[in-house]
Amino acid sequence: MTMELPGAGDQRRSQLLRGVLDVCLLALIAQRPRYGFEFTQALADSGLDLVREGSIYPLLARLERTGLVDSYRAPSASGGAPRKYYRLTDRGRAALAEGRAAWRAFAGPVTGILDRAATTGETTMNTGETTP
User: Fold this and answer.
1) Pairing state between β 83-88 and 34-35
2) Residue 125's pLDDT is what?
3) Distances in whole angstroms, Cα of residue 92 to Cα of each of 11, 21, 32, 72, 123
4) Does the reported pTM lie above 0.90?
5) What are the pLDDT digits (tens) for 51-100?
6) SS3 string of the chain?
């Protein structure tokens, strides 16, 4: 049996998230235009509290460079400096639809494997029997 290193769970979550963070941001923008800090809050509220603002901004810049989002400035509700908001473009909506489909095509089989392993592999481990 292997021992998991402290923080290894967070590391795995971070690696998994890295592959879908752009799609998550597009989905959040599809709900409504948002500014930088709102992404971090929305992700944390959804249980993805590993994401920091410092990793959001480079990704937003890349999404903007590739034409998936565009941005505009609007006054801050608190009276501070104007905020940069991001909204989806038509290309961004298409990329979001493709990202959702890709995620479902990937997550479904992985979930199936993990669920089958939980019902068969864990049972045989407890009894000492081997499965063919």
Assistant:
1) antiparallel
2) 52
3) 29, 14, 13, 16, 45
4) no
5) 888 889 999 999 999 999 999 999 988 888 999 999 999 999 999 999 99
6) CCCCCCCHHHHHHHHHHHCCHHHHHHHHHHHCCEEHHHHHHHHHHCCCCCCCHHHHHHHHHHHHHCCCEEEEEECCCCCCCCEEEEEECHHHHHHHHHHHHHHHHHHHHHHHHHHHHHHHHHHHHHHCCCCC
